[in-house]
Amino acid sequence: MTSLVLLYVFYLPGKLRLGPEKTRLSFLQERKETVYENLRDLNFDFRAGKLPEADFKTMERSLEDEAAGILAEIASLERFEEQRS
Amino acid sequence: MSQLGSYALLLALALSAYSFIGGLAALVWPGAQSERLGETARRAGIAVFAVVFLAALVLVAAAFADDFSIAYIFHHSNRDLPAPYKFATLWSGQEGSLLFWSLLLSSYGLILRLRHRTDTRLFAYASVIIAAVQVFFLLLLNFAAHPFAVMQGSLPPDGNGLNPLLQYPEMVIHPPMLYLGYVGFTIPFAFALGALIMKYPGEKWIHITRRWTMVTWMFLTCGIFLGAHWAYSVLGWGGYWGWDPVENASFMPWLTGTAFLHSVMMQEKRGMLKVWNMWLIFATFGLSIFGTFLTRSGVVSSVHAFAQSSIGDWFVGFLLVILAVCLYFYIVNRHHLRSEHRLESLVSRESSFLFNNLLFVLFCFTVLWGTLFPILSEWVQGKKVTVGPPFYNKVTIPVTLLLLLLTATGPLLAWRKTSLESLKRNFLWPFLGAIAVGVAMLVFGVRPWTDISYFYALMAGMLATLVALTVISEFVRGGRVIARHTGQSLLPSMLHLWHRNTRRYGGYIVHFGVAIVVIGILGTPFNQEAEKEMGYGDKVSLGPYTLVCRSYTQEDNPNYGNEWAIIDVFRGGKQITTMYPERRFYKASQQTQTVPRIHATVREDLFLVKDLYLVYEGINPDTGRPIIKAHLNPMVPWIWIGVLVMIFGTITALFANAAPVRVTVPARVPEPATVGAGD
Fold this sequence. Notes:
Distance between the termini of chain A: 50 Å
Distance between the termini of chain B: 54 Å
Helix content of chain A: over 70%
Low-confidence stretches of chain B: 672-679
Number of domains of chain A: 1
Low-confidence stretches of chain A: none
Strand content of chain A: under 5%
Order of helices and strands of chain B: HHHHHHHHHHHHHHHHHHEEEEEEEEEEH
Radius of gyration of chain B: 27 Å
Strand content of chain B: 5-15%
Radius of gyration of chain A: 23 Å
Shape of chain B: globular
Number of helices of chain B: 19
Mean pLDDT of chain A: 85
Oligomer: heterodimer
Structural class of chain B: alpha+beta
Number of strands of chain B: 10
Number of strands of chain A: 0
């Protein structure tokens, strides 16, 4: 039993298969998805009649500004990555 | 057998220690070989599962083989014990239940380590933290509470048997459910602490642990209510919750875990409450360990607790280490937990989550205070003072009603802020419906001015209606939007709606279940009871029922001897059932147990379902006739129905969302937005 366990733990032939490292870019992509999801929610709640139009417009603008900031940073990071490669 | 089990436990400890130290070294000293070192640590963690599983298997096999050379089997099993209870021997005593803890932790660890490619580095941190917790439990098993300790001297012919109170079918599944809940909180804790230590960018760890947390919460919910149902069906006092320290021990992590499930949405959606969430999950894990300590240390008296032992000191030490580690990394990395947004309005979804959390924490603190009061009073006054249900009810019932109010109103509030017009638009009809139910309750005879418990019942009825109506309105409004887009009718649209956002709409179903449970709990003032010595043909009236004693007798089998009465139940002159309340004497353990009988009636009156509950209290030695106690509990079945709804809602929330329909809309954001159900 011990030999089998030791063999399983320490015998590592070939290259290891690991997942991708998390970068600032992947973090921003996650944030972008979250803000888009929030926009979808807001849109849906408005269509469902839960929000008056004035509230909807204010909140939508605020979320769009947040998304625009994230997209700008993603674009600049992608440009930097392109230049580096 | 005992040697194989002991060896497996030692090997598991060595592997866990390697998984912890090797994994930690790979994270702290990154280098060319660190990835390979980290991989061996991960594999060692996986191997722990196989080895601990073997140890558990050996213990169960020993129970089935009646191997009384193992002290644990001698103390918790006997030859005539039915097979399912022999299997349950694994968790029916202190040492076995700690082995079961360890087995479940290694099972959760196995799943986590197999899924490591989702985010290799974050999973490596979580794996190391889980290995550290595993080391603690394996140290306990190897050096303080050894399940394979052997009997000294000559071998006994038979064992002491399982505690009679535990010889009940639900007891075969209640402890595993509870343990799955307790142990499961280690996973979100490990991810949260790992994310804090590595200053993990973003909230993806919450997304990764979302299902873990929900599944864990569901198991704990099942465990708590199975325990309550067991107490109701076995202990024979007609109640289901006595604020016993061991009940409280399972309830406290449930309260903070429920708070975490809500507040974590604020972090996911708005990047807020990061510090609060971190400490909530630390507290939830800490309370799970604290609960395990309470049941094992002997510091509190309880009908459920294991015998007093020395392992309490181990748990105190472990709790202090957890606190020190959490506090250290919080202080060092607290800047990483800065909130991205501020609370903009007191009338918003965010503030409803905040109030909800404050109430849950207040509830938890009340339960903790009541649980620890006997210990604190002994320290301060030298005299143990125990607090009972009146202490708990004074705080927890108003808090529960406020939580129910937030359950109803929270989903209707908008994120950021809610205008007056929006409030009117969303709340008018549900509030009118709740008031209508309140008026109906007054008309049907509920008198809140006569007793505070009637006031609570009235409020519970109104607030539960409010919850139900808001849940229905959410489904209907959302369903209408989908129906407009797809041309489907309302019902398929609502199903479609749930499938588009399972967490949100599954959560609403859970809320609906909670409302039903609260109605059941706060319906206590409608209970009735009667007690009488009953000879042949004697009658007792209780509510609309007449109970007639047909006979009483005795019997004997290898496991226990018993005596019971045969009671015919009549309603309006017509016999509706016969019940057999019973009392048993277990031979191996020399213990007596009452076996109450419950008859649930359906759709006989306004209560829809209710329980008739009979207890055989014993025989009057002067007359030789049995004493029967009868309870009529009209609202209790609603608790179990509500729990089933909660479990169903949680399961529906676990399904993956369907992909949203992508529709290009003119927007200021340069990528197409989509139409889907909100969160």
